[in-house]
Each structure stands twice: as structure tokens, then as C-alpha cells.
Amino acid sequence: MPRINTATLSEHRDWRRNQLIAAASAIALEQGGQAVTVAAVAERAGLSRTSVYEYFGSSAELVADLVIDELTVFAQSLQGAVALTSDPYDAIDAWIDAALRYIADGRH
Hints:
Blueprint: H1 9-31, H2 38-45, H3 49-53, H4 59-82, H5 88-104
Helix pairs in contact: 1-2, 1-4, 4-5
């Protein structure tokens, strides 16, 4: 029986999903998107491939969720940067700066 690290099963599933997405992200950043496979993510997370399939039906589904999560992070960083100013020209500069920082961090 798997160990539950949270108060509820739902929280555990969210925690495990986030762990798998983080593993997939690390692999993509280190080795490129083609290296993100169920086997590689399972190994990085210290789980069996079967366990990964409990959360994602395929490598494609895993990668799609990774992309959606990363786009959410990107959008939040842009929104946060733009929210710091009321001047529209400064907002454009802030948006560009935030986008370039995101790209420079290697998360693109």
C-alpha cells in the first residue's frame, strides 16, 4: 500500500501529480522535451511507471499538463509584472522584462 503524505487522499493525489510534473519539468530543462517519457519521469520521481499511469494516461498527456502548468506560471509572472504599474508604457516594458527573465531562466 502506498504511503499517504497528506491529510486526505485528494491532497495526496495533488501532491503526487505536482511531484511528477516537477520531475517532467526538470527532465525537459536538462535534456529537452523529447526526453520526457513516462519511464524517465517515474525514475526521477522514484516511482514505478505504473504509478505514473495512475495520474497520466500517456507521455503526451503528461507533457500537455506540463505545458499547461508552465504557461500558467508564465502568465502569472507577466500579470504580476504588469500589475505593478498603472502607466501603459511602463506596463509594456514590465511585460517584456518579465518575459525575457522567464526565457533567460531556461523555462521556455
